[in-house]
Design brief:
Length: 457
Amino acid sequence: MEICCIGAGYVGGPTMAVMAGKCPDHNVTVVDTNAARIAAWNSSTLPVYETGLDDVIAACRDRNLHFSVDIDEAIARAEMIFVSVNTPTKSYGIGAGRAADLKFVELSARRIAAAAKGPKIIVEKSTLPVRTAQSLKRVLHANGDGHAFQILSNPEFLAEGTAIRDLLRPDRVLIGSDDNPDAVAARQKLIDVYTRWVPLNRILTTNVWSSELSKLVNNAFLAQRVSSINAISALCEATGADVDQVASAIGRDTRIGPRFLKASIGFGGSCFQKDILNLVYICEYYGLSEAAAYWNGVLEMNDWQKRRFVRRMITAMFNTLSGKRIAILGFSFKKDTNDTRESPAAYVCRDLIDEQAQLAIYDPKVPAAAIMADLERLTGLSHQDLGGRVVCERDAYAALHQAHALVVLTEWDEFGDLDFERVLDSMRRPAFAFDGRNTLPHDTLRQLGFEVYAVGK
Ligand code: NAD
Ligand code: UGA
């Protein structure tokens, strides 16, 4: 089968690479309007950093996996088309700041309709508000020259940093479809693709609306757990309880389970906030204001947690950060990814810059240019002004040199393995350590002479 995927991003690239790897007899073409991104997928420096991705790409690129800017040609050839374009929060007009911006999805549908020369199976891979398939259907049928289009919902549940593992061994694959014979036949074709490597009992089928909504709800439930434990982290700090001990105790209850109970500076990433905002917007649209307020609380708690972390730093450091060199370790939104979208680290850095701190930032995978671009956007400072307040360093030791404080904002493994004696020797006194991810060896640091602050402790 000829398969096309529109959108060569964090989802489209890895998802299609795994699919091509597992289905050598299908031909997969990933297309994008962003020529630089396609060129990177065709180079030795992939645009996405994911453990194991290089090997998967090397095994099938130019065999049955292709990256191309020739969108119309790939659409025309394909029998099945995945739509994996970005669906960011709308930044303009009605619903600005809350609703999902569906312009890229609609443009993809119009492009499919214009380029199609026969029937197509369209698979929604992007995360979409419930009932989007209805709009897609109308756009396709109004412009599609009479061709038959079947629309399936197949949301993606991979997490960045573990994308390849998640794709190879998904907890489940969710496929939403209509129940007429043509839709069921289309759904079966997609099931036949996945069963090459996913056991049939892990493939769930639902109606389209349940599938679309389940994706938003899945992210909302995960984010809600992080906000719940972060709320408790504040109580732990106030009472002398230890949030990791509390998480471990409640996580042993099989009804609760241990995962997503790690207290932090707050959740980030391109999706949790965007999808909850969207869920809140949909609840409001249907007049369900109490349900909307409930889920909005998850976001309010997350914002409070980021601000609370900075306030604690200011209080500990004698109520002023002005002119102090602060070493920031980690800028990506979680470890093992180069993605900085909605990274809580960026918001903490913005607030520290507001306090006139001098930041020395190091992240193992995020390039300096990306860090500076994010901070320029968040602070509104010019490139030059920002350059006077922020430097990006080549490693953690360089960032920590002459710093007043060591601040962990992303839980990269290497930060726990630093030579802390060497670090302390190079820092100013008192040497503060603020662990926003509870990843440092706190007792060792205290014994050496650091003043340590950890989340929820
Ligand atoms: P991304 O921004 O990394 O990639 C999207 C790509 O689509 C971009 O390269 C963009 O240039 C391209 N694009 C946009 N409009 C296009 C068009 N009309 N024609 C061709 N290309 C076009 O986004 P992503 O992180 O891959 O996310 C894609 C979708 O998957 C979103 O809906 C997101 O919510 C969802 N999702 C993301 C993740 C994740 O971990 N990032 C996980 C699950 C689901
Ligand atoms: C999340 C979901 O886990 C995926 O299932 C989903 O497909 C994806 O969103 C999406 O729709 O984009 P991702 O954002 O890549 O994946 O990463 P997570 O592991 O969920 O972490 C999200 C944020 O929560 C990170 O900032 C992480 O540091 C934080 N987090 C996570 C915590 O602070 N504590 C935890 O216990 C877990």
